[in-house]
Amino acid sequence: LRWKHVAEVKETSILPMLTVDMENKENGSLDVKNSVENGRPPDPADWAVIDVVNYFRTAGFEEQANAFQEQEIDGKSLLLMTRNDVLTGLSLKLGPALKIYEYHVKPLQTQHLKNNSL
């Protein structure tokens, strides 16, 4: 019983700053809400390279986040990335690269376009 309790405590404390709303997402992606708490500007276009890196670390892509640092991907670059850029330009494994593009890069681009077309 002791071991089980330790595992449960660990699970709940993994992402303390992440607000997750999974109710209206059918595709299984997490809706990560930006806030002042996470230290990043709300608009990804204003993110520095370290903000992009921290975004992907917080989203659970610890290993892959380094590729964004190595390639000096800031917020403006992130918003310009194509599917092909993410799949081939970052030298990532295909599985994580697909998730990064579909569940993070593409939604950030869509949200940015919506917010800036008003």
From TrEMBL:
One Pfam family named in its UniProt record: SAM_1
Alphabetical list of SMART domains matching this protein: SAM
PANTHER family: ATHERIN-RELATED, POLYCOMB GROUP PROTEIN
CC annotations in GO: nucleus
Xref: PROSITE patterns: SAM_DOMAIN
Name of the protein described by the UniProt record: Sterile alpha motif domain containing 13
SUPFAM superfamilies: SAM/Pointed domain
Gene3D superfamilies: Transcription Factor, Ets-1
InterPro entries named among the record's database cross-references: PcG_chromatin_remod_factors, SAM, SAM/pointed_sf
Entry's transmembrane regions: none
Ranges for domain SAM: 47-95
Biological process per Gene Ontology, one example term: negative regulation of DNA-templated transcription
A GO molecular-function annotation: histone binding
Species in which this protein is naturally found: Bubo bubo (Eurasian eagle-owl)
